[in-house]
Amino acid sequence: MSSVRVLVGTRKGAFILSSDGKRQNWQVDGPHFGGWEIFHLKGSVVDPNRIYASQASDWFGQVMHRSDDGGKTWQTVGNQFQYRGEVGSHQWFDGSIKPWAFRRVWHLEPSLADADTVFAGVEDAALFRSTDGGLTWEELNGLRQHGTAADWHPGAGGLCLHTILLDPHNPQRIFIAISAAGAFRSDDGGESWKPINRGLKSDYIPDPDAEFGHCVHRIALHPARPQVLFMQKHWDVMRSDDAGDHWYEISGNLPSDFGFVVAVHAHEPDTVYVIPIHRFGTLPPRRQTAGLPQPHGRQRVGGAHQRPAPAELLRQCVKRRHGGG
């Protein structure tokens, strides 16, 4: 029987949940790093025992961890994230100019081919890579030196690179998303980048159809069909059928098109999960089939009747398992 592992990062530490394929009984292991804020955990699809974790706090700063035995033990690895080349500057909330400054790691994405290679998305927005299991980190500075970068500005959570997607069919293709700069794609392993925001519309920016500046909250793909992308934007749920070159809205009958989460079912490429948010809290998770507006949205929840939760659920709270957890 298959097994399931869920890696959970919280403000009070990390937890590892495991179950068999029936998912009726769960074993909860943790907290790991009890009392510390864990921004992200991600396991390697090459070696599921290899797990990377980002611990960050305003008081103690960034601390990176790695486990080689599925979370039984951990070791602290490299914490030096230095921008490469000219640091430069970006816009602040009020339009003033701020120099790029590293604050924390938001997202970790292990390589699909090598357990020792892992990408890190950070705040202020940049992409780093380690090829020695997290011991050392080097910036892929082609993204931060993109021609639009000086005009990027932070979202409410900061100028954060919060999403990294690797194309399993094309090892040179990488997708990233930045709040609030938008989505970008590299077709040469991270050396150069192009904005992929055509079709997005954001009424809260001066040019609602701008090439960049959209507050993208999350993007997702299915490994069997990586050219099809799904996006949860600040407002609107979107879909692209051409690797982000063009987007169209699929919010359909969702009770709210605002949210942070989007995820694709592990075995059904046309089934997409979002968690709509309205001003009173979080609505039950919704399931869209075929990525198109449905006449009746079906709840993908444990019970037939759910009340809105009192708190918002953010980007990393829904993960579908294809391999590393």
Task: Break the fold down into its secondary structure elements and pairings.
Layout: E1 3-10, E2 13-20, E3 27-32, E4 38-43, E5 51-57, E6 61-67, E7 75-76, E8 89-91, E9 97-99, E10 104-110, E11 118-123, E12 126-130, E13 138-139, E14 160-166, E15 174-179, E16 182-186, E17 194-195, E18 216-222, E19 225-233, E20 237-240, E21 248-249, E22 259-264, E23 271-278, E24 281-282, E25 286-289, E26 298-299
Antiparallel strand pairs: 1-2, 2-3, 4-5, 5-6, 6-7, 8-9, 10-11, 11-12, 12-13, 14-15, 15-16, 16-17, 18-19, 19-20, 20-21, 22-23, 23-24, 23-25, 25-26
Salient structural properties:
five-stranded antiparallel β-sheet, globular, Methylamine Dehydrogenase, Chain H, about 325 residues, four-stranded antiparallel β-sheet, mainly beta
Structure, explained:
The structure is a single chain. The chain is globular and about 50 Å long. It is mostly beta strands and 325 residues long. Strands 22, 23, 24, 25 and 26 form a five-stranded antiparallel sheet that branches. The protein has one domain: 7 Propeller (Methylamine Dehydrogenase, Chain H), CATH 2.130.10. It has strands spanning 3-10, 13-20, 27-32, 38-43, 51-57, 61-67, 75-76, 89-91, 97-99, 104-110, 118-123, 126-130, 138-139, 160-166, 174-179, 182-186, 194-195, 216-222, 225-233, 237-240, 248-249, 259-264, 271-278, 281-282, 286-289, 298-299. The protein contains no helices and 26 strands.
The appropriate CATH architecture is 7 Propeller
Q: Tell me the CATH topology.
A: Methylamine Dehydrogenase, Chain H
Helix-strand makeup class: mainly beta
Q: What is the number of E strands?
A: 26
Mean pLDDT: 87
**Most strands sheet:** 5 strands, antiparallel
Please indicate the percent range of residues in DSSP E strands (runs of 2 or more).
35-45%
